[in-house]
Amino acid sequence: MSALPDDFIREIEAVVGAVGMVCDAERMQSYLSDWRNAYRGEAALVVRPASTEEVAAVVRLCNQYEIALVPQGGNTGLCGGSIPDASGTQVVLSLTRMTGIREVDTENETITVEAGAILQTVQEAAAEVGRLFPLSLGAEGSCTVGGNLATNAGGTAVLRYGNMRDLTLGLEVVLPDGQIWNGLRGLRKDNTGYDLKHLFIGSEGTLGIITAAVLKLYPAVRSVTTAWVALPSAHAAVQLIGIIRGLCGDRLTGFELMSRLSVDFVLRHVGACSDPFTETHPWYVLIELSDTQPDAPLNELLEQGLGGALERGLVTDAVLASSEAQVAALWAMREGISEAQNHEGPSLKHDISVPVSCIPAFIQTTDQRLLDQFAGVRIVAYGHVGDGNLHYNVSKPVGSDDTAFKAQQDAIMHVIYEATTRFQGSISAEHGLGQAKRAAAKHYKDPLELALMRAIKTTLDPKGLMNPGKVL
Question: Starting at the edge strand that comes first in sequence, how are the strands of the sheet with 209-216 ordered?
Fold first, then answer.
C-alpha cells in the first residue's frame, strides 16, 4: 500500500471499514491473477465495498486522488479484463460483497440483483418462484452478474434467449466521477432517448461500475430432450439447425458443434465420459429442445427432424438421452473440452464469430491455412452454431517444444483473425477484449468505430481512471 497516499487510505477505510480492505500481500493474491493464471498484475490495495453508496464513495476518492480503478467480479474471464497492470499503483475494486437479490417481481417477470451475485444463485432464486433465468455458463458457480454484464456473456442458451444485452432491462451504475445513475427500471418499452444501459453492457468496467441490474425472467422449463448427433461435415450442421428450427421454433434451446478432435481430448482426459457411438465421426452436435409444458412432444419432434436429415445424408448417427444422468453425461462431453485441451499442452484460444452461413467455409479455409503454415498443429473447433460463435483453438503439435509453439502465437492469431475479417466476423464473440485483444482490436476493428468508442470513453472518463489498459 506504500504507493498510495496515507490520507487516501484513511478515507477509504472510513468508507468501507477494515473488513472492506485487503492489504496483506498473501490475501491479495487471488485478486491479482485470473483463474487460469494466464494474466497477473500487482495492486496497491483491494477494496471490497458492501453497497452502491460505498462503491460511489470509493470511486469519488479515486477520482479525487487520480488513482486508477480495476473493477472485478468473480474473476473468471479469459481475456485479463479484471486484472490490474504490473505497476502496483492501481486499486482493485471487488464487488463480491454485493450479493443481494433485491427484488423478484413475478408479475413483471423480472429479478433485481446486485452485481456481486453469483450467477447460479440468481438461477436458483428464479427457480424458487417457478421461473427461469436462462443464462448458463460453465463458470456459473463462481462468475458474477456484474462480470456477465461487463462482458455481455452469452452461454449455451443464447440461441433461444439471447445474451446479457437481451436479458437486461435496467442497470444501476456508478460513473467515473462517483455519481450514481439509477437506471433500475423494469420496462420493456422506453423511447425517451438513448438507451444508456447498452453503453455499460460489454464495456468491461471502462466506462463505469455496474452495481445492480434488472434482469428478465421466463417461465420454468418442464420438458427437455437432448440428443447427441454425428455429422459428416460442419456444413451438415448448418443445414441441420435450419431443419430443427423450422420444425421446433423457439423450443430449440441449444445447438453445440464439436469437432472429433474436441471429443477425443475429452475422452482422453475427462473422467467418466464415454463415446455414445461405437464408430468415430468427423463432427458432432449436441441438440437440446425445451418447453414450458410438462408433456410436450419433444422427443417426437426431434426424432422427426433427425429422421428427415438422416434421409438427406446430413446425419450419420444419433442418440436421444433417456434419463437425467444421460443428459448430464452428454453435456459433460461439451463442457469438458476447454479443460481437456489444457492437458494437451499449450493452446492458443480464439473466441470468434462469423455469420452462421459462413461457418463451414471459415473452418475449411482457416484449417488449411494453419496446417500449411504450421505443420502438425491440432485445431480444436467447437461452439454455438445458432449465433455463429466458434471457439477456434490451436494446440501444439504432438511432441513439439512449448516455447517454440508459444512464439508462433501472433502469427497463428493473424491467420485466424484475417480469416475472421474476410468472413465479416468478430475477433471476440463472448469473452470481451480485456487486455488480451486490445492490440488486435486496433488492427481489425473499423477505425471509425474505435474513434467513436474513444470519444465515449473520454466523455465519461476524462481522466482515464476506469480499468485503464483494457478494451482501448
Answer: 101-105, 110-114, 209-216, 168-174, 180-183
Residue 272 phi, psi dihedral angles, 5° rounding: 70, 5
**Which residue matches cell numbers 473440452?**
337
Euclidean distance between CA atoms 332 and 292, whole angstroms: 24
Helices (H), 66-99: none
Q: How many C-beta atoms surround the C-beta of residue 208 within 10 A? A: 25
Q: Which candidate, 287, 437, 435, 409, places its Cα nearest to that of 352?
A: 437
**Residues 275-306: pLDDT tens digits?**
999 999 999 999 999 999 999 999 999 999 99
Residue 468 confidence (pLDDT) above 70: yes
Contact yes or no for 115/149 (Cβ under 8 A): yes
Cα radius of gyration rounded to whole Å, the chain: 23
Summarize the confidence of residues 151-164 as an average pLDDT: 91
User: What are the CA-CA distances from residue 5 to residues 8, 69, 417 (Å)?
Assistant: 5, 15, 44
Grid coordinates 468491461 are at which residue?
204
Provide the pLDDT confidence category of residue 193 given band limits of 50, 70 and 90.
very high
State the residue for C-alpha cell 453492457.
201
Percent of the chain whose predicted confidence (pLDDT) is above 70: 100
Measure the CA–CA gap between 330 and 302, rounded to whole angstroms.
16
Cβ atoms of 426 and 443 closer than 8 Å: no
HSE-CB at 88 with a 13 A cutoff on CA atoms is: 5
DSSP string, 349-392: --EEE--GGGHHHHHHHHHHHHHHHSTT-EEEEEEEGGGTEEEE
Q: So what's the pLDDT on residue 1? A: 44
Tens of pLDDT, residue by residue over 78-116, are: 899 999 999 999 999 999 999 999 999 999 999 999 999
pTM: 0.93
Residue 102: CB atoms within 10 Å: 14
Candidates 404, 261, 401; CA nearest to 341 is 261
Phi, psi of 427 (to 5 degrees): -80, -10
